[in-house]
Design brief:
Chain lengths: 259, 368
């Protein structure tokens, strides 16, 4: 259920502009990895290349290798749809489908692909996914109501439930708590801690305390200046990054001296 | 030491303000003065209303300028302009509806108007109706059927073409040169005079089926030439406002692009698309010129759009007015024309109401 990701010599371009340069990183299975760094340093861009979501942006392209348990995502003939069904994603802003009920939102990955599923199986999947996202008790009585009627934090957990309903191997989260209040953030962080028993989780965050709280390993990205490409500066255990970083710029960033 | 302040009788905050009854007083004065002025040169109601309104606006602005200061005076001046412009815009609309109602209701109420055609209604029948006072015979059933069928076929042609074009432009083209050409041509098509669309369809079918081919379907093709650009434009706008986040959410679940479009993008935009289509229908159902050259004139019921001439409400109005059934007694024809005009307005109004209903029914649900 959980796979590791190995990235080697990855460059990301927007047209001719080199956005992220030469990333080498190994993400362990069943672990939480946090990406931190100042805005515009390419964390989110890099995260998107891990399930080929950057291809949605016109002009974005990638050089290098991303191995999912040894299979290169960018090998010839790999269908991005297959990649995305194995590597799910949760976005910065909660984005439940407004035309669908809570139940249909959870089943979206199944229903939109027109896989037939007996009703009892579908009910089980809905309950399992919502329980997995710590949302079941709050919504079990109103599964047929629209998902857009939930609060922001509930919507984000609904999006996580939707992502885990297609049973991916890896879950990518792009600043999942930046639009949420502290209570909802806590709920999501607890959830991330539970998710790592079954999934490989990668999370981009601007909140360093959050990175320290939830992640096993932390990657620090930085940018030399405007127009320069973003780079992976340091990747190590979270405790090392926050207590005893190897690089001067990492120390400056985590201690709040800049950024 | 704390002192309690009692409320002052005349608040310092309202100093320099006109009392609240001022506008009413000015209105009464304006009405009286304008009546007096007009009685000097000859009284008429329309002039009275206009002069009263002008005097009222001027009095309001002047009194505000004297007592309340420049800002309030400017405010009242702008308010007068806005309200005046609104009334001027409303005037022709109300006038049209009133005229059509007054002239159309008797004809619409005539027995059999909605259920009979003009088949067998000759000049002699109309002459008898005028001379002997027998009821005006003849109706719009054939024209109503023709209008509905022609518009239906035009919709059947236009909606798939227009919607698919819009989907290509928004979802697939990514702003390439081909899409810019399409957008440009669609804009040009929006400006095509309707008679040109009619001539195009007539010439096209004359080429493939022989000259003089006039059927309901030819008319439907002509109308769809007018309808497609409207459908493309409105659908395009609706698809564009679907948030990209929803597409990304679907892609991230491993959903294919075409399924994302069919199951996420279109359902999210469907209320806007549907009301856009309904408004496009309302736009073409009143077209006259293209129907004159493509569907011909018919006085009897024709349910087949693929053969024979077909009547429609606009061409029915046109022929009743231009060539009355009885040249010596045109009144029955005029009455039928007005009634048909009223029917057409009612149809368009129903379509507009339908568009709102459709938009409400399909709109994304909210609720807890």
């Amino acid at each position: 259920m959980s796979k590791r990701i190995d990235v080697s010599d990855l460059n990301v371009y927007y047209g001719d502009f080199l956005a992220v340069e030469d990333v080498n990183i190994n993400l362990e299975a069943k672990s939480v990895t946090a990406f931190i760094g100042p805005s515009g340093c390419g964390k989110s861009t890099f995260l998107r290349t891990l399930n080929r979501m950057h291809e949605v942006i016109p002009g974005a392209r990638v050089e290098g290798k991303v191995l999912l348990d040894g299979d290169n995502l960018y090998a010839d003939g790999v269908d991005p749809v297959t990649v995305r069904s194995q590597i799910g994603m949760v976005f910065q802003r909660p984005n439940p489908f407004p035309t669908m009920s809570i139940r249909d939102n959870v089943l979206a990955g199944v229903k939109l692909n027109s896989r037939r599923m007996p009703k009892s199986d579908a009910d089980d999947l809905v309950e399992k996914s919502l329980r997995g996202a710590n949302l079941w008790n709050e919504v079990k009585d109103r599964l047929e109501k629209p998902g857009s009627g939930l609060s922001g934090g509930q919507q984000q957990r609904l999006c996580i439930a939707r992502a885990i309903a297609v049973s991916p191997d890896v879950i990518l989260m792009d600043e999942p708590c930046s639009a949420l209040d502290p209570i909802s953030t806590l709920a999501i962080e607890d959830l991330i801690n539970e998710l790592k028993d079954e999934y490989t989780v990668v999370i981009v965050t601007h909140n360093m305390q959050q990175a320290a709280r939830v992640s096993d390993k932390t990657a620090f990205f930085n940018i030399a200046g405007t127009g320069k490409p973003g780079k992976l500066i340091e990747f190590a255990d979270t405790t090392t990054i926050f207590n005893n970083p190897g690089e001067k710029s990492t120390e400056d960033y985590v201690s709040g001296r800049f950024g | 030491m704390a002192t309690l302040m009692t409320e002052r009788k005349r608040s310092a905050l309202t100093r320099g303000r006109l009392p609240r009854y001022t506008p009413y007083a000015i209105a009464v004065a304006a009405i009286i003065i304008s009546a007096a002025l007009l009685s000097l040169v000859g009284f008429n109601v329309f002039g009275w209303a206009v002069l009263s309104a002008v005097l009222f606006a001027a009095g309001n602005v002047t009194s505000a300028a004297i007592v309340e200061g420049r800002r309030k005076a400017t405010d009242k001046f702008a308010t007068s302009l806005v309200v005046g412009a609104f009334l001027v815009a409303l005037l022709p609309l109300v006038s049209v509806i009133w005229t059509v109602l007054v002239n159309g209701v008797p004809g619409l109420m005539a027995p059999g108007f909605l259920t009979t055609s003009m088949n067998g209604v000759t000049g002699a029948v109309d002459n008898a109706a005028v001379k002997d006072g027998t009821p005006v015979l003849g109706g719009v059933y054939h024209a109503l059927v023709g209008s509905v069928l022609i518009t239906l076929w035009a919709t059947i042609i236009s909606v798939p073409v227009g919607l698919l074009t819009a989907i290509y432009l928004v979802e697939y083209s990514a702003g390439n040169r081909f899409s810019k050409v399409i957008t440009f041509l669609v804009d040009v098509m929006t400006g095509i005079p309707s008679i040109v669309a009619g001539l195009f369809a007539a010439a096209f079918f004359a080429m493939i089926l022989g000259p003089g081919t006039k059927t309901g379907f030819v008319a439907a093709v002509a109308l769809s030439v007018l309808m497609i650009p409207v459908v493309v434009r409105s659908s395009e706008e609706m698809l564009k406002i679907v948030p990209n986040e929803l597409r990304e959410a679907a892609y991230a679940l491993g959903v294919r692009k075409w399924r994302t479009i069919v199951k996420v993008v279109i359902p999210t935009a469907i209320s806007g698309i549907a009301s856009g289509v309904t408004l496009a229908i309302a736009r073409v159902i009143g077209e006259t010129a293209p129907l004159l050259v493509t569907a011909g004139f018919a006085t009897s019921i024709n349910m087949n759009v693929f053969a024979g001439w077909m009547s429609s409400l606009p061409t029915f109005i046109y022929t009743q007015i231009m060539t009355p059934t009885s040249p010596s007694n045109a009144d029955p024809s005029t009455q039928r024309a007005w009634a048909a005009a009223l029917l057409l307005i009612i149809l368009v109004m129903l379509l507009n109401l339908g568009a709102r209903l459709v938009a409400r029914v399909f709109a994304p649900k909210t609720g807890r």
